[in-house]
Amino acid sequence: MLAWIASWALLVGSILSLGFTLHAFFPARGTRTLVASFAASMLTIELAAHHLFAQIAATVVLGMLGGFAEYPGHVAVVVGGVSWLGLSYLIAEGSGARAAMQSTLSGFVRDWEGPKIPLGLVLLTLPLYRAGVERVRDVVFARVAGRRLKLDVYKPALPGGPSRRPAILQIHGGAWVFGDKREQGIPVCTHLAAAGWVAFNVNYRLSPGATFPDHLVDLKHALAWIREHAEEYGVDPGFIAVTGGSAGGHLATMMALTANDPSYQPGFETADTSVQAAVPFYGVYDFTNRFGTMPPAFVDRLLQPHVMKARIDEEPEKFAAASPLDRIRPDAPPFLVIHGNRDTLAPLRDAREFVVKLAEVSRSEVFFAEIRGAQHAFDLLVSPRSVPVIEGVERFLNEVYQRHCEKMGARPPPLDGLELPRDAELS
């Protein structure tokens, strides 16, 4: 009886496992299942090694209970084997991210040495803590519409060091309607802090309470606040980069393309809101949906009624003004655009079009890292794919900062980031 139960449990588990593995390769794109499908696909892809270990372990345990003695167990081995092959492919695909980043930045980054993300964080997957990094939580940077807006600061916990470090402003995603600084951007913030930077993970007002460009105005408030408090946090006010994912990628791009625009700085029009580099992850670059890449529900059920509170056929200029594709300018800062080729939420074509058009106009460097096999929000977890991407972002930003200092005729300070023993690094 036990062998019969074990064999059927093995078969059912193998079928479910294969289903998740196949879904990672072919996620649904229909409106009703889009978000749930994305989540299941992303978790399977980024945790492929964990899935593989769990499936093999379950197979061994059930086999020891007699699962291989019955016919269903024989079928389960074949089904499970197919799943294991698929997961192994996903793991190999993820390991190619390092080569993709180095190829993208080849000829620009002069020094690829720097702090590594510890292997232990990859095994844990959730970046809740990073040795040598200090976090200051819930710092109020503005009071808007009766609400206190807050940010978290990540900085090296080492004593001494340069008093003017480069900084980065991180913007969370969430379709402009949800999300929080406690949930996103932590791997980037902690790694940059370990490398000697100061990172500010920022909250902003969300729709439907907020109407675009309220989100952008709040973030410019944060940028102005960082410059005002530069001395307090040891920040070089002359070099602040911006990053973010999804809606945060859209807002990070808009921050870079609307520097010092007084229409987005009510009450603080003279504040310096320029950024010196931009790294949008899987951003949204077009609110007009000119290429028809967005599901109709994105425009009809989210963008028009909740984010813009306007109809595109009645006020097309508002949607164009909120589209990075329509805000491209020659004096844009250096850009590193990152997007996965398996993204089902933010269209890859829009990212490609944005990069091409920006590169035609911008006087600064424009790089596009198309990450093979990556879903939307792949960097929420510390994984074999997100690790080299985040490390590559740090190398890119360090290079931009070095060149910025050289252009200003100043010697960049040594960023005394966290030194990790080599046996604790992910090579």
Give your account of this protein's structure.
The relative contact order is 0.15. This protein is α/β, with parallel strands linked by helices. Strands 1-2-4-3-5-6-7-8 form an eight-stranded mixed beta sheet, with helices on both faces. It folds into two domains: 93 residues; 317 residues, 3-Layer(aba) Sandwich (Rossmann fold), CATH 3.40.50. It contains 14 helices and eight strands. Helix 1 runs parallel beside helix 4 and helix 3 runs antiparallel to helix 4. The protein is globular, with a radius of gyration of 23 Å. The C terminus is likely disordered.
Give me a quick take on this structure:
The chain is an alpha/beta fold. The protein folds into 2 domains: 2-94; 108-424, Rossmann fold, CATH 3.40.50.1820.
Strand order of the largest sheet: 1-2-4-3-5-6-7-8
What is the CATH topology descriptor of the largest domain? Rossmann fold
Structural class: alpha/beta
Number of helices: 14
What radius of gyration results from the CA coordinates?
23 Å
Q: What's the domain count? A: 2
What share of the residues lie within helices? 40-55%
Unreliable residue runs: 418-427
N-to-C SSE string, H for helix and E for strand: HHHHHHEEEHEHHEHEHHEHEH
| Beta-strand residue percentage | 5-15%
User: Which architecture name of the largest domain does CATH use?
Assistant: 3-Layer(aba) Sandwich
Shape: globular
- Please summarize the sheet with the most strands: 8 strands, mixed
Distance between termini? Answer: 48 Å
